[in-house]
Amino acid sequence: MKCVKIDKKLFAGGIERLQTSYRLFGPVKDNNFHDFQALHVGETPDPTMLNTRLSPKSIVYPQSELMFEYSLDDSKKDSHILKEIVADNSPRVVIGIRPCDAKAFLLVQHNFDTLEYKDPYWVRAYEATTFVGLACNTPCSTCFCTTAGSGPFHEAGSDVLLVDTGDYYVAKIITPKGENLFKLAGWEEEAGSDNAAGEIENLKQAAEARITTRVNTDKLREKRTTDLFDASFWEEFAFSCINCGTCTYVCPTCWCFDIQDEVSKTAGVRMRNWDSCMYPLFTYHGSGHNPRDNKTKRLRQRFMHKLKYYVDKYEKGIQCVGCGRCIRFCPVNIDIRKLCEAMNNFEPAQKSI
Amino acid sequence: MQNPYLPYPVRIDDIITETEDKNLKTFKLVFLNPADEENFSFQAGQFAELSIAGKGEIPIGIASSPTEKGFLAFTVNKVGLVTTHLHNMKVGDIMGVRGPFGNWYPWDLMENKNVVIIGGGFAFTTLRSSIVYMLDPANRSKFKDIHVIYGARTPGMLLYGDELSAWEKRDDINMHITVDATDDPDWKYNIGFVPTITDQKAPAGDENTYAIVCGPPIMIKFTQPVLDKLQYDHDHIIMSLEMRMKCGIGICGRCNIGKEYVCKDGPVFTLGQLNNMPKEY
Q1: What is the ipTM of this complex?
Q2: Average pLDDT of B117-122?
């Protein structure tokens, strides 16, 4: 694998050159938090960031996205007929995405990009995006990526992985997309590969050693869905939940959406908006019946989806990359690691014969 | 890339008020582009998303049969924003259809078998599609005895009245129409709830008999013990579920029961399958 060395003094210049070929997104500090935003000319990703408050999923999958437009003016020939709105799918690059968030796109891809149906909005945006990962030298206390199918130096989902070695970034070029981007940036000084590989390996081991919390997921697959579903612990975990939905909005792997029409005079659009299984309307039937009519059922759905249904459906592990955002931002301290532990260790009471 | 969210444009060709409370209307829809009709190839038991620009979409079972060409029919109960708007639309108005979506009744498994259709209320739509499909001259010989147990609250709440009368007259289908109650002296069919009539009229279950059950939850709840008494295998009891849906293609995430999406992996499940799924519907 090719490794490139970037003197940090030359980093901003390369970013500047990329502005002509890509739309750039990177972590920027906004009040007290970092979030991914479009980088304007002269701006560079903030190197002090640990991770952003919201995941970068909105760069591929906006919180609100127009799908179709139409006219309700009956004097027009095509009134009431929907026409597709194709968004700006020009090449874009996400610089400084953490390995967990880059991996998350691969988990979500199993939902949006299938053999049967392709979600054209998600697929086009994803294909237009190049991901420049930034390895984590300083993981947070809530990170558990190493046991959630990812890791601070994980490469899956990134086109390039940057490693901060002090005065330099060492970049591992992973895909042709990444190689092309580096050419356009003018970052082409090859790092002596043995040296670079050793340096990266040392940093990686140090970072992994800092991640001390873990989840055990080895027994989730073998549990019976109905046993877990009927487990007695849901009530206790849901007791403090206020169904605010924060966990689903900050999560890089939550993908559920709603579709709504909006009309102004005779011009209308159909759009989709992020939705959340935490909300009662999510499953509310026209008849008034609601299969998830209380918060315990809604909380159960979220964790069963991530830690059981997804595991069984795709056989690609859990629908979680261990970024820890839901733990950090939950107002009532619900911790997915504890839920996972309870599910992985669950044994149904012996049925009396 | 094909956009699975884009509806085919259709024109409302006919509107039939089905029930005495006027809350159920059948809409016959004709594709504006003939090529779209060919792409919309479906089987009895599937559903579609009806799209109304400015209002939204609703998932509705297809009431016409694949053997009926040139149109699609949907019988719609007036419930919310989209259905209320649809009930006020007129012949000639333009709307949209997406689909067909979901799985269908297992027609291949039911070949050379007896088929017992048990329906209640306005859940009879895909059952109508199924009956018309099975009675088609090209298909009737593929099935053995056909029984239909169909009930509504009153005679005026039965869907497809003319067709029910026509089927009553045939000797290749056993009709058992019933109403919960009526004071109509001319009512010549059954009186009683669907589970009771099922108990009296349905053939006993065996390996050559399948039951398709569609109706309100209360009917399903009381029909199941009757079918157990008649010794129907749970893999031979076929049900169609409803759920709040948006995308119709298993992507938007709201209609799951366990790992199955009702819109894509359903809406048709056997009772045997449902027994192993969470009770969350």
Answers
A1: 0.94
A2: 94
A159 CA: distance to closest CA in chain B (Å): 24
Residues in Cβ contact with B160 at an 8 Å cutoff, skipping those fewer than 6 apart: B18, B124, B128
> Nearest CB to B251: which of A119, A286, A310?
A119
Q: What is the CA radius of gyration of chain A?
A: 22
Inter-chain contact A283–B243, Cβ cutoff 8 Å? yes
Is the pLDDT confidence value at B3 over 70? yes
Partners of B53 on chain A (C-beta within 8 Å) are 70, 72, 80-82, 261, 268, 270
Q: Note whether A256 contacts B254, CB cutoff 8 Å.
A: yes
List b or e across B63-100, with b for residues whose CB sees 16 or more CB atoms inside 10 angstroms. Answer: bbbbeeeebbbbbbbbeeebbebbbeeeeebbbbbbbb
Contact B198, B214 (CB under 8 A): no
Residues A53 and A115 in one domain: yes
Q: Given CB atoms, is A263 within the 8 Å cutoff of chain B?
A: yes
Nearest-5° angle of CA B204, CA B207, CA B213?
A: 60
- CATH 3.40.50.80 intervals, chain B: 114-240
What is the 3-state composition of chain A as percent helix, strand, coil, each rounded to the nearest 5?
A: 35, 20, 45
- Report whether pLDDT(B257) > 70: yes
- CB within 8 Å: B1 and A120: yes
* H or E element at residue B260: strand B260-261
- The candidate with the shortest Cα–Cα distance to B82, out of B103, B99, B112, B59, is B59
The reported pLDDT for the residue numbered A353 is 52
Interchain CB contact of A84 with B (< 8 Å) = yes
Q: Find the helix or strand (DSSP H, E) in which B56 lies.
A: strand B56-61
Report whether A122 contacts A87 (CB < 8 A). Answer: no
Residues spanned by the domain of A249: 225-345
**Fold of domain B114-240:** Rossmann fold (3.40.50)
Q: Chain A residue closest to B96 (CA)?
A: A81
How many CA within 13 A on the CB side of residue A277? 25
Task: For B214-251, write each residue's pLDDT tens digit.
Answer: 998 889 989 999 999 999 999 999 999 999 999 999 99
Q: At what angle do helices B194-201 and B217-229 cross, to 10 degrees?
A: 20
Contact A118 B2 (CB under 8 A): yes
- Spans of chain A, pLDDT less than 70: 193-194, 350-353
Q: Any CB–CB contact under 8 A between A275 and chain B?
A: yes
Q: From CA A51, how far away is CA A295, in angstroms rounded?
A: 29
Q: Are residues A340 and A300 in the same domain?
A: yes
Q: What 3-state DSSP class applies to A108?
A: helix
A313/B55 Cβ within 8 A: no
Indicate the class that CATH gives domain B8-101. Answer: mainly beta
